[in-house]
Write a structure and sequence with these properties.
The structure holds two protein chains of two kinds. By secondary structure, chain A is of the alpha/beta class. In chain A, 36% of the residues lie in helices and 20% in strands. The mean pLDDT of chain A is 97. At the A-B interface, α3 and α5 of A face α5 and α6 of B.
Chain lengths: 293, 260
Amino acid sequence: MRAQFKNTVTELAATDDKLVVVLGDISVYMFNDFSQKFPARFFNMGICENTLISVTAGLSSAGLHPFVHTICPFITDRSIEQIKLDMCYNNFGGNIVTCGATFDYAWDGATHHAYTDLASLRMLPGMEVLHLGSKREVDALIRSQYKNPKPTYYRLSDHPHAFETNLAFGKGTVFKNEGAPVTVMTAGPILTNVMEACRDLPVNLVYFHTIKPIDRALIEQFRDTEILVVHDAYGLYEAISEVPMLRMRYHGLPDAFCGWYGTVHDIRKRIGLDAAGIRAAVQALIEDRSQAA
Amino acid sequence: MDALCKTIRAEILNVANKSGHGHIPTSFSIVEMLCAVYQTMRHDPKCPDDPERDIFVLSKGHASLGFYCALAGQGYFDFKDVEAFGAFDSRFGCHPDRTKVPGVEASTGSLGHGIGLAVGMALAARINGTSRRVYTLIGDGESNEGTVWEAIMVAANLKLDNFTVLYDNNNSQARCLPIPNPRERFAAFGCDAIEVDGHDLTALKRALAKPTDRPKVLVCNTVKGYGCKTLSDNVYEWHRRAPKADELNKLLGELDARTV
């Protein structure tokens, strides 16, 4: 997804002389061709995430279309006030693109795990929040959103899914609609595991890449079902909760640091976000409902 | 004291009295700095969105009352308008909002933000191939924030010669985390650092005009509450106080007598 991000902005920069890239000493080698083609619009600015956001807002104030990119927790958790004030409150747009989603850097421990970004950024007025799951989504949604005057957050992962989704901003995708009493809702790359888990189960399955604004009209279609949100971050459950009076449950992160190292797959398995764990959670909900009936 | 600077200080006192709000000592310390910038940079109060204008960002946003009165002194609006300072539905909040007040380029208040924004604005001017200059005024207390030094490092590394910082060295952190030798510090960070009397309008303009090939920092030695002995002798008591009627008369009298 990172390579797609680089390819897309490099292509856009060829016809948009307002496009600027600011890196926090991450993905620099990957951006070599961009920096060679557009040296006056490429800045590997430093490991100073607060200032990266402030500078990006300042660039935007003058009509430029900046992209700022570095590792997820450092530019979201650390720089939340700069995003809130310098971008959102000042009405200065710009594009924040992160790598290192959730447990992508599992082996680095909890300092490098990132799961609060979507939830915290969606609370900021004016912010657009995207949990992109595939390369196609990266390409399509950067192209559709990067020039608009709002601050936009794009969360990338090293483990994309390979499914075709609705690529329109703010729109979800229905993968299964069997008129079932249970609907699984998910977002981002964990879709791979969710699809495998639910393949032959009697549930509806809905996917989102846009966390804010959430596709409320699509959620409304499943209001009469019990909704199980399966997500490897915070933010989707809260976004779906914007629709009032839903029956919802969450299957995802524990209230604990997941400092077991290994790979993202190891941690997902430990906390029940591998396909088997998700399947067990969905089956448990189905059984609960049948017992209640 | 320059006549306009004296008028601005008197209006700061009047507005604080009428509104019940005010960071008066910190607003008093920056009056000459604001006048020096606005009397030398490219701007047009009748056209505050002129795309060729230079930009000033008040990073220490709590000195907004001084800023508003300085903008009024330039003709952006009337001093009378500022009397709504801090009132419900007023344009003039106790920290400046760029979407409400003409001449305000950035909404500031949380310390250590405006300078980073200003670095981005200066870099944008370079990318856009314009000759626009960007000025920002930061506090010495504000410079306890690490983001100030991040922004300075980035500006110096980029050799932003269109970027000027005015550092209000008003000794505000004497009881907390003082920053000794600020000129040497900014110079060590790669800036063209100049120490100047922050209440000497002529010296300030001379320092602003000095050519440079790097970010410029004017370490402006100032006095909190400059112009009124009661304020400058009691800065902590007056940090966020508004004068009552009798106090207003006393302070205006001190201003007329030019006590410090």
